[in-house]
Amino acid sequence: MVFTSWRGVVGVVKPTHRPGSLEEFIRLLPEGIGVVPVYLNFKRGTEDEFRGALNAVEEKVAELAKEGVDLIHPEGAPPFMVHGYKGEEKIIKEWETKYKTPMVTAAQTQVEALRALNVKKILGVTYFIGSVNDITTGYFQGAGFEVLAMEGIPVAFEDVGRLAAQEIYAHTRRAFLKNRSADAIYMLGTGWRCLDIIRMLEEDLQVPVIHPVPARVWAVQKRLHVRQRVKGFGKLLEQMP
Questions:
Q1: Going by fewer Cβ within 10 Å, which terminus of the chain is more open, N or C?
Q2: CA-based diameter of the chain, in Å?
Q3: Pairing relationship of beta strands 71-74 and 121-126 according to DSSP bridges
Q4: Of all helices (H) and strands (E), which one includes residue 21?
């Protein structure tokens, strides 16, 4: 079966079954862009789980390519970040050739968004601690950014969605006040529900905030040659650089 929609169709590989980010993504996309989701089933959010995920991701990519989508977007940054910036680029180029479909990962959309906003120094906030944050730091350094810190919240992977937006705001604000020279704040992961604080953080701290969902919406629009601004979720979607 070939899925069609009048502005294009993006196939997304979701790393977990947790609700929230897919609904947010579809809500922020312009009318006329179709979304076909397929799912993995990450449970632990650990480095070894991410390192062992590539074959499973490729199976889902192949499934979406067979369906004839216009663009494939494997979500979940860490499963690609563990291969490094250059390693990820090589994997995606090989898959594009093999499956004859344009692709972009979550991490690639975030790098592109940061560059579009002329960011050089970033502060990261995450819901991971330990090696995943080290991997994320190394990935962005490989992409040419100075990473001032990658500040994690100690929360169980399965409980991330229960964090209140106010807790996430407070964590992000504390991290920024320790790293005020950052050009932007990068938020790793879509497990937490915090779209409603992006604009507030930008207004209070006077730097752009790159969250994976708006970055995804921006990058998908760019690749489908659509340019529809969205207000209320940060500078990236309001200005569409």
A1: N
A2: 52
A3: unpaired
A4: helix 21-28
Segment 146-169, tens digit of pLDDT: 999 999 999 988 899 999 999 999
Q: How far lies 71's CA from each of 56, 64, 121, 176, 194, in Å?
A: 18, 9, 30, 35, 26
CA distance 237 to 9: 20
Backbone phi, psi, residue 12, to 5°:
-115, 140
Q: How many residues does the chain have?
A: 241
User: Are the CB atoms for 91 and 54 separated by under 8 Å?
Assistant: yes
d(CA 90, CA 86): 6
pLDDT in tens, 164-219: 999 999 999 999 999 999 999 999 999 999 999 999 999 999 999 999 999 999 99
Contact, 125 vs 149, CB < 8 A? no
Q: Is 176 exposed, middle or buried (CB count within 10 Å of its CB: 0-12, 13-18, 19+)? A: buried
The pLDDT of residue 162 is 93
DSSP per-residue string spanning 133-180? HHHHHHHHHHTT-EEEEEEEP---GGGGGGS-HHHHHHHHHHHHHT-T
Containing H/E element for 17?
A: none
pTM of the full structure:
0.94
- pLDDT score recorded for residue 2: 56
